[in-house]
Amino acid sequence: MTMDEDTKVLRDYLIFTVPHVTVLAGAILGVMMILGVPVTLALGIFASLYGAMLLILGMIIRPHVSGIRAYWLFIAFTVFLILSGCFLSLYGR
What we know:
The chain is 86% helix and 0% strand. The chain has three helices and no strands.
């Protein structure tokens, strides 16, 4: 079974961009932890920021791969991250 061209584009795009976003969001989380921000608030901000950055990446590639299911699962995951981050930030105390 071979992958179609759109799936290969999505795979390659995610392989080469998500690690950079992960490192940036992780660095921001580390700075918040060093500054003494409460853990639930720091994790909420991290999840919201990480989800927003991944959503931006997803919107950039949308014209090329919007027809495949893996793309929509990726978008659903990013929206879940944003919502869970907002929930942790607001109600995690």
